[in-house]
Structures are given as C-alpha cells and as structure tokens.
Amino acid sequence: MMKLLVSSVSRTKHSYDAFRKSRYAGVANQVRTAVNKSGQRFGSNPISFEQRLRAEGPARTRFAPSPTGYLHLGSLRTALFNYLIAKATGGQFLLRIEDTDQSRTVADAERRLYEDLEWAGIEWDEGPKIGGPYGPYRQSERLPLYREYTEKLLESGHAYRCFCAPTRLRELAELKKKHGIPPSYDRTCSHISKEESDDKASKNDAYVVRLKADSIYPQYKDLIFRKQGGVKIHKSDKEFDDPILMKTDGFPTYHLANVVDDHLMNITHVVRGSEWLNSTPMHIALYQAFGWQEPKFAHISLLVDKDNQKLSKRVQSANIRTLREEGILPEALTNFVALLGWSHDKKSDLLSMQELIDIWSLRFTRGDTKVTFNKLWHLQKKHALRYLEAPAYQREASLRTIIEHVVKPIVSRCDAAAITSPEEYSFYTSIEKGLPRQKYITKMVRPIIASRQYATPQEFISKNPFFFTAPNRERLEEHMPSMKLHEVPSVVLQDFSALTVVGSLKAFTNVKNKDWNIVKLAELRKDLIDVAAMTTMQSFKSGDRTPEWQLTINKAWGRLIHASLRWAILGGMKGPDGSEVMSALGKDECLRRLASAVEILNEKNDSAKENDAGGSLDNSMIACATMDARAAGDVEKVMREKLDTEKDEDEEFGSLDG
C-alpha cells in the first residue's frame, strides 16, 4: 500500500509537470520578449518588480496551516501573499493541512479555517474539499509517504535512529542550559550499526529519526533577506544540531513533512513568516540529502503591535473570526493585510482583490511591520463607498456585497435586540420581517455609506437610534433647535415668528403618497426655504433688498428649516440628508413624528402668546402655501395669492394639530 501511494504520487507529478510545461511554456518567453523589445536587458534593474515575478512563469504556492488554532492576521497574510503570487503568475494555489501535532489539534479549527478563507475570497485550486493531482492534502493521511522517505534517508546515511530515552534527553538539555550551551544532541546513537538499529526497531524499541547534519548548513538566496545559511552549527565534537525528522508516534515533524510535501506537490515558491528564517538552511540540507531542487524562499516580516511586540494570535482584534463578526468587509480586510509588509507604486492604497493580483510583486519589506487598525477602518469606509458608487457593469455584484456584508448583519442584530429592548425598536418591528426590513435598512445605510461614515453594523445601529424608533418627548424638548435666524438684522428678527417653522413642518401633510420620495421631498424643503426667505425680505425697505441680503436670509432659513426637520424626525441627531431619511421612514411615520414636534412648538408659542403683539400676517400661512405651489408649478403666483387672501389654518393643517 505504501509503495503504491508513493508510486501514484510520482506518476501524477510527472504527468502534471508535462501538462504545465505544455500550457505555460510561452509565458516567461512572452515577458522576456516584451522586455527586450523595450530595450531593457532581462534581469537588469529597469525591469519592474511585477515583470520580474511574472518572467519566471506560473508559480505553485501553498498555505499549510496547522489546525491547532484559528486563522489570525499573520496566517491570513501568509495565505494571501501565496495566493496572490500564484494568481499573478497564472499558477496554482494549494491548501494543505499540517495536522501532525495531534495532541494540540482544535476540534473545529479546520472547519473554521475553510470558512474564513472562503469568506476572504481566497480560493484554493487544490486541497481539502476539492482534491487535486497531489492529494491527499491532509498530512495525517500521508504518513506512508513520510515513512517511505525517512527510510530513504536511513538507507543513504543522511539520517539515523535515536533510541535515547526522554529522561536522558531532558537531563542532557538541562545540563547544557546550566552551562549556557544551546540545545543540541551528542550523537550517542549515531554510532549504532544499521544492523543493530534495524534489529532494535523490529523489536519495537521506541526511537526517533534524526537528520545527520553536516557541520555547516548550506547557503541559499532568500527572495527578501538575500543570502542566508553557511553558519557553523557544531560548536564542538559533542554538540550537533541533528533535528528530529520522525517522532516515536510515527508522525513526522514539520521539518520533514513540509520538505517532502513541497517537493512532491511541485511547490515553486514558499512564502512564510521570518520566524522560519533560521530553520530554512536545515530544510535546504534536507532537500540536498534527498537530491532534490529546493523551491524559492521568501520570509516575510514579523507583525508587531504598537509596542513593537510580536502580534499575538490570541489577541481578539487579530482574530479573523472576530473581525468578521464585527462586520469588516472581506476586501477591506484583504486590502489591509496585503499592505502589511508590501509596497506598490499606485497613487491609492484602495485595492480590490483583482487589482492586487494585477499589480502583485515581491516588494516585501525586511523590517518588522507594525499593525495599527486605523488604516483598516479607513479602508472599510472607502470600500463600502466604492461598492455604492460602482459602475453599471459592477452594480449588481456590488449591491449583493452590501446586502450580504452590511445589510443582513444589521438586520440580524436589530432582530435580536428588538426581542430584549422592544421600546428601542418600536418602528423597526412595525416593518414586516425578512425582505421588507432588508429593503428599509438598505435605504437607511446608503446615505451613511455615501457620507463615508459607515464602519460596522453595530456602530451604525448605535449611532442612529432614531432609525428604529421615534424620538420621545423628553428627547425633543431637550434638543429643540434655537428658533432664531442667524446673521440677520435685528429689525427683521422683530417680525420673525416661530410659527413659520410650524407651518413648514405642517406643509408635509399635503404631500401625496406617490410624491413621498427623495426628489419631491427635497424640492418641497427648498420651496419652504424660499417662501420663508421671501417673506422675511418683506421686512426690508425696498432699497435694502440686495442680492447679498437675499443670500444671507436664504442661508439663515436653510439652516433653521434643516435643523427643525432633523430635530422633528431624528431628535436632532446628526446623520444623512433629511430627504433620504424621510423617504425611507415613509409618510405615515414621518407625519407622526412631525405632529409630535408641532405639538411641542405650539405649546411653546402659546406660552409666549400673551407677550406677542399679534402682528399682521401670520407667517405660517405663507409656509402652508408651498404644496399648492408644487401643484401649480408657480410658487410666486401662489404666494401673491396667499398675501392677499387669508385661509383657515385649521382647514389646511388640522390633521396634525395636537
């Protein structure tokens, strides 16, 4: 069985190599030809980083996580960098599960790994769930292969069995530590003859298999850190590195398994964290012991926190599932992660997955990379806005992204919160569950995204409470806007009446149901401002009615009516344009909220009525004419008629009076 598995992998490897050569043979030549035509010598400095990566043809890369924990920023970055190299060169990206450390395996880690990678848009071409020509892709299912290749090392003399008891090894390690000597082995078992070693193994004596390392590990050229290795590893005749390749339980160590798998799976580039930099010369030695050509190695920078300490995978903010649950957009996260230790020449850091593939290169930094999440939140807002403003050919896909990663999480949170806090979601729960609620949230979230204020579903909910329930009386009384016209002459203020604001709020009663939309509501609001400003200009002497004063008065009324509507509808809360909110809330809900505001304003006016001289024309009557102006299409004509003819206020607005 073991020989059949090895033979099958070998045959598949050769046939797959032939396929790749036939399919991709011209890729590298095309790049070289293009470079030569431009007058640049291949391999010289003028060649761009992007060309240099693609000139070598399709790459085969892999991500080989251990299911001993969950995906975090560091491991996602490793997966992403390998994925982008493969896709940028027209190659393949493999997923391999290194589950040889059975004692530390977390039960649901593998399942969550698949979910998180798929969520992030990192799809593997070969690996678990989908298979491939080099399977199996789970190391625990490849044990016969590791034993086969361990036997080859034993046969060639590049490895030996070590029968030392764990107690002896512990004592040896403690003694070396006491004298300040790095951990090493004294090769006690390397002198055992092959016959004796085979005999002890056949009798089931416990043993491990060690690599018989040379005194100096070979050098290699790292794609980031340049020349590495060539370090003397034996301090004396009694100190040897000789790492363990096969454990007593029959499972390989990482050193053996990853070398065997990378070779048999035809991996061309190994991109991994710089913590493996010192182990790579040993891996090169293993490749040479087998007589194999090693892949290219690139060791990416260490991720550190604001205190320059290694970013812990146990920090919740670095956990991918935590970021997912917070509502981070997948492309915002992959964009953010791609920039951790990599650079480019584009003017903007806002990059989709496809844009990353198009410009990907090996421009990795060598020093530690500090992780600060401000950039992530910036990219979150920018990606959300990009989806909202997507061109026509991308609009459907972008809307699906907003629905899936923004709207649905908000709806889910609101549905759950409404059960425990119904009073805070009284309007929201009046909307039918399912699609109607999704449509409502979509309308509400669009202006938030457009104003670059969207961050996460929970922040959207907490910052916009009156999207879900009407402001109560206490809120309205505490946040009533100042009923004043700013920056206008005092003579004008003498004739100013807050009833004009009341009339402005009441005017929305006459909007027809079919006209309750963003455009019509914005037009009405503008007309209300114009009418109020025109009335106020009547207080000026004819010679003082200059364009400059007209502009000042318009701005003053604009601020007041905007503030009054925001107060009535959202309790004075900051947020998107009032017309968009009112359109989404619907006519019935808005009229209820406006009625509550009008009642409070009327009470305030009644309390001050005794001190009011009465005045001539009630300004609220002017404001009420606006709807007639919309119908007739001539605001000025209706206003002239209203200045000459008084109408019964109750007839026009009675339905909203307290």
TrEMBL record:
GO BP annotations, alphabetical order: glutamyl-tRNA aminoacylation
Residue span(s) of domain Glutamyl/glutaminyl-tRNA synthetase class Ib catalytic: 60-360
Superkingdom, natural source: Eukaryota
Subcellular location: Mitochondrion
One GO location term (cellular component): mitochondrion
Residue intervals of the Aminoacyl-tRNA synthetase class I anticodon-binding domain: 563-597
Bilayer-crossing regions: none
Keywords on record: Aminoacyl-tRNA synthetase, ATP-binding, Ligase, Nucleotide-binding, Protein biosynthesis
Gene Ontology molecular function: ATP binding; glutamate-tRNA ligase activity; tRNA binding; zinc ion binding
EC number: 6.1.1.17
Pfam families registered for this protein in UniProt: Anticodon_2, tRNA-synt_1c
Family statement: Belongs to the class-I aminoacyl-tRNA synthetase family. Glutamate--tRNA ligase type 1 subfamily.
Protein name as catalogued: Glutamate--tRNA ligase, mitochondrial
Upper classification of the organism: Eukaryota, Fungi, Dikarya, Ascomycota, Pezizomycotina
